[in-house]
Amino acid sequence: MARGAVGIGLIGLGTIGTGVVKVLARNASVIEQRLGIPLRLVRIADLDLARDRGLDLAGVRFDSDAEALIADPRVEIVVELIGGTGAARALVLSAIERGKHVVTANKALLAQYGGEIFDAASRKGVDVAFEASVGGGIPILRAIREGLVANRIESVCGIVNGTTNYVLTEMERSGEDQAVVVKRAQELGYAEADPSFDLDGVDAAHKLALLVAMAFGAQLTPKQIPTAGIRGLSPIDFEAAREFGFRIKLLAIARAHRATSGAERIEARVEPCMLPARSMLAGVDGAMNAVAVTGDAVGPTLFYGAGAGELPTASAVVSDLVELAREVRRGAARRVAPLSYLPEALHEPALLPQDEIFGRSYLRFTAQDRPGVLGRIAGVLGEHAIGIESVLQKGRHDTASVPVLMLTHPASAAAVRAALSQIDRMPDVTAPTRQIRIEEG
Predict the structure, then answer these.
(1) What CA–CA distance (Å, rounded) separates 205 from 92?
(2) What superfamily would CATH give domain 355-438?
(3) pTM for the full model?
(4) How far apart, in whole angstroms, are the C-alpha atoms of residue 129 and residue 349?
(5) Quick one: average pLDDT of 370-396?
(6) Which residue of 17, 186, 339, 396 could cross-link 13, Cys pair, CB 3.0 to 4.6 Å?
């Protein structure tokens, strides 16, 4: 290995791992000019040794033995890109135990076992870097941890899953059913063979758990975050959104609600929302991601870019490698806490109950096309102090049931939930009501 070079070991040569190899080779000279020393990929471990990735691996040992890679004295930084939480957890902890710095893009691993991993790293005097775990190539975690460190963060709201954003964009554009668009997303490589992790909002919830820790010092597990995916949205919802002046996006939302006494409660949720068509997040289309962060000093900021893909995600992984390589040569772990807050400042947050969320809603009722039905629905809403802002009724001559599309005035989530429970029991209502909350953007 070249004098002064930092040795890299890569576990997992899938899409992102292949991108990392390409970026390290393509940009070796500019990385060395910025870092002052070369990054040298010395070893790769992957179970699939036969597949041709189109890479020149001359001088790189390539085999299936991840533990041997971790034990190799030439490897100073281990990159974990296999995903999952079983083998990945064991390998990351093994690398830390051997005194190796770790880079990972594994949001599920950190959302589930981050406390254990960061504690182990602290005891061994090494660091775990994970910029690629949220937002792909967008440097959102580094921005919160360092660029916005002077701020008390007020809110984080983002589109953090490219698969669902592509599906929603295409449903709006084409008017096609979700199943048709998801199949096309799979054919294009935007969606997995089993897209449940994305469509059900689980991936976004894992990322939001990390964002909440970074922004507020609040430790949440993904299971603590109320999560609703995009299943059940139909073309008529997008038609209604357009007529009302909105667009539908799957959002990861976190806000700090601070009382005058200083007490703080955290609102955290993942769900499809309607955004005013003029808002910045509403304009994020296709597989792109964006995260809006508001700080008390800086005000609103927006971070936009490719949230997935071989090279954008590899860009974030290599940026972590450069940061850790500086530490390797300095001989000390970084002074910046990985989750922005010092470990002793991280806390279990008081959560804002979902029933206390206050705002406007879009409601899609499915009711029999009879005189007086709309009036009865409006009556129940009125009983719960929910005002009606706008109504669209889409008549269909081939069925006895029609969709009634409505925007409400601001109301508490508790009132809306109680009203919909009562409305859905009405004999004239033939399907459960669909609610989409409106974020004012």
Answers:
(1) 22
(2) ACT domain (3.30.70.260)
(3) 0.93
(4) 24
(5) 91
(6) 17
